[in-house]
């Protein structure tokens, strides 16, 4: 049986400079992995390691220079697949909700537009309200007519998650969606995504520079450095016995053993409402 997603020897080379003095930079170098239905895979690496470039290729925002990305055996980005059909199955949540949401758009437009685009019929407003409830923006009636500029960072990120969920994707690629948020708000978003993954039977790619959040979220991890995967495997096994020197450096850079303590403290603070379903 085909895996849900198969990334097969994918590379991305960026070119810059003039015709005569062309510079080439390999941002992603021969990366391969698979993702199964219902799995959470973390891609972990420092800034510049190529995580976002890989994510953008997976959701077909940019083409790969080499290699193939297959969704249930069918190539993403091939001429026979339209961008729209890829978007229906592979959705991405970005790092900066302030950048990705136009401040002058209302919530019902942000969430409702892709629904219409993908052929939803019936009462779109009701469908948007249901999605807002799903992502914890309640009472949904208080949020649906707000402008993006009237929302906090965490609320914006929830709207972006509602927008992605509306078209029932199979795979959600989350590119550091909590890094711009306060720790406690970030934990709320992490717990929300784990709940939604369950409810919607999603596979999730969780991109982060933080091993603590990777451990909290994922079953399996890929560690990226300089565009390459330097280590991969079961999350707990890697944390217990990292094989690569770079992974050990990342672990040593964690503020405490796996940052969980810090996350836990934030969740217990008055500002935090997060719960830790996996902590017990
Ligand atoms: N359009 C582009 N043209 C040229 N180089 C690029 C382009 N996009 C990314 N790069 C380079 O590719 C490398 C990987 O960038 P990428 O954004 O994928 O890293 P990242 O691991 O996601 O980092 P961060 O966590 O800071 O977002 C970087 O050195 C970056 O400067």
UniProtKB/TrEMBL annotation:
Q: Which SMART domains match?
A: AAA
Sequence segments annotated as region (Disordered): 256-280
Q: Any keyword ATP-binding?
A: yes
Which PROSITE patterns does the record associate with it?
A: ABC_TRANSPORTER_1, ABC_TRANSPORTER_2
What Gene Ontology molecular-function terms does this entry list? ATP binding
InterPro entries registered for this protein in UniProt? AAA+_ATPase, ABC_transp_ATP-bind, ABC_transporter-like_ATP-bd, ABC_transporter-like_CS, Oligopep_ABC_C, P-loop_NTPase
Which protein family is named in the record?
Answer: Belongs to the ABC transporter superfamily.
The protein's name:
ATP-binding cassette domain-containing protein
Q: Which organism is it from?
A: Paenibacillus glycinis
Tell me the organism's taxonomic lineage: Bacteria, Bacillati, Bacillota, Bacilli, Bacillales
